[in-house]
C-alpha cells in the first residue's frame, strides 16, 4: 500500500477535474542531486511531470533508505508454510515481519499507475537494491499469473520510465552489448505486462569529462520534454 508513504508531490489544491494518477518515483542511488547525474536528471523529470500533471500524486521510494527483505531461505520457508496451509500466526516473528514487508512492497507497486526508475549503472547493471526491489514486486498472483498457455503479466494498464546514468555510452555503439540494467528492467516490465517503457540516458561523462556538463544539460532538457508526454 502507498498510504504509509508521504507524497513527494500531492495533488494541487488548485487542481480540478478527475482524480489523478499515482506515480512511484523510485530512486536507486546513494547520492543526492548535487553529486549524481541520474538524480539531477530525475529531479528535472519529476518536477516537469508534476508541473503538467498537478492532479497526480507522486510517491518517492529511496531504495537505499527502504527496508527491502532479501529473498532467502527464511522467506522461502515462510512462503512454503503458508502455501501448505499454515496460518500467518504460525510463522516466526522474523518470518512475519519479512513476509508482511514484502507484501506491502508489492501491493504498493500494484497500486501505482506509473513508475519512474532512476539509477546509475554499476558494472554494467544497476545497484543491487534495485534487484532486491524487483524481487519484491515480481510475485505470481500479484503482478503476473500462470495460465494453461503460460505466464501472463497483470500490469497491462501501467506506464514506466527510466533515467539511467553511466560513465560510458551503453545505450548504443561498441559497449552496448554489455549493458544489462535497462535491458533487464525492460524485460521484467514486459513480462509483467507493462505496455509502455521509455528511457532518457545520461552517459559518457567519464569517457568525455570535458563534456560532462554539456551531457548533463542535454539530458535534463530531454527529460523535461519526455516528462510532458509521460
Automatic annotation (TrEMBL):
Query: Pfam families in the record, alphabetically?
Result: Flavodoxin_2
Its needed co-factors are: FMN
Coiled-coil zones: none
* Family annotation (InterPro entries): Flavodoxin_fold (IPR003680), Flavoprotein-like_sf (IPR029039), FMN-dep_NADH:Q_OxRdtase_AzoR1 (IPR050104), NADH:quinone_OxRdtase_FMN_depd (IPR023048)
Q: Which residues bind FMN?
A: 36-38
The enzyme's first-digit EC class, named in words, is: oxidoreductase
The source's superkingdom equals Bacteria
- Per the UniProt record, which EC number(s) apply here? 1.6.5.-, 1.7.1.17
What are the UniProt keywords, alphabetically?
Answer: Flavoprotein, FMN, NAD, Oxidoreductase
Note whether Flavoprotein occurs among the keywords: yes
Limits of the Flavodoxin-like fold domain:
21-224
Reactions accelerated catalytically: N,N-dimethyl-1,4-phenylenediamine + anthranilate + 2 NAD(+) = 2-(4-dimethylaminophenyl)diazenylbenzoate + 2 NADH + 2 H(+); 2 a quinone + NADH + H(+) = 2 a 1,4-benzosemiquinone + NAD(+)
Q: How is the cofactor bound?
A: Binds 1 FMN per subunit.
User: Which family does this protein fall into?
Assistant: Belongs to the azoreductase type 1 family.
Free-text function comment from the UniProt entry: Quinone reductase that provides resistance to thiol-specific stress caused by electrophilic quinones. Also exhibits azoreductase activity. Catalyzes the reductive cleavage of the azo bond in aromatic azo compounds to the corresponding amines.
Subunit description? Homodimer.
Identification of the protein by name: FMN dependent NADH:quinone oxidoreductase
**Gene behind this protein:** azoR
Amino acid at each position: 500500500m502507498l498510504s504509509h508513504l508521504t507524497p513527494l508531490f500531492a495533488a494541487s489544491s488548485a487542481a480540478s477535474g478527475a482524480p489523478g494518477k499515482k506515480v512511484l518515483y523510485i530512486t536507486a542511488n546513494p547520492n543526492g542531486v548535487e553529486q549524481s547525474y541520474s538524480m539531477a536528471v530525475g529531479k528535472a523529470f519529476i518536477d516537469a511531470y508534476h508541473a503538467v500533471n498537478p492532479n497526480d500524486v507522486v510517491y518517492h521510494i529511496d531504495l537505499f533508505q527502504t527496508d527491502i527483505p532479501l529473498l532467502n531461505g527464511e522467506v522461502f520457508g515462510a512462503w512454503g508454510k503458508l502455501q501448505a496451509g499454515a496460518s500467518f500466526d504460525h510463522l516466526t516473528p522474523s518470518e512475519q515481519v519479512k513476509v508482511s514487508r514484502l507484501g506491502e512492497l508489492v501491493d504498493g507497486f500494484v497500486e501505482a499507475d506509473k513508475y519512474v526508475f532512476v539509477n546509475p549503472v554499476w558494472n554494467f547493471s544497476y545497484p543491487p537494491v534495485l534487484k532486491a526491489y524487483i524481487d519484491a514486486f515480481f510475485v505470481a498472483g500479484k503482478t503476473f499469473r500462470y495460465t494453461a498457455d503460460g505466464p501472463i503479466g497483470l500490469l497491462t494498464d501501467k506506464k514506466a520510465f527510466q533515467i539511467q546514468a553511466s560513465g560510458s555510452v551503453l545505450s548504443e555503439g561498441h559497449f552496448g552489448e554489455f549493458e544489462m540494467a535497462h535491458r533487464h528492467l525492460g524485460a521484467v516490465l514486459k513480462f509483467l505486462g507493462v505496455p509502455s517503457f521509455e528511457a532518457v540516458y545520461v552517459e559518457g561523462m567519464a569517457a568525455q569529462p570535458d563534456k560532462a556538463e554539456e551531457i548533463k544539460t542535454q539530458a535534463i532538457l530531454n527529460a523535461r520534454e519526455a516528462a510532458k508526454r509521460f
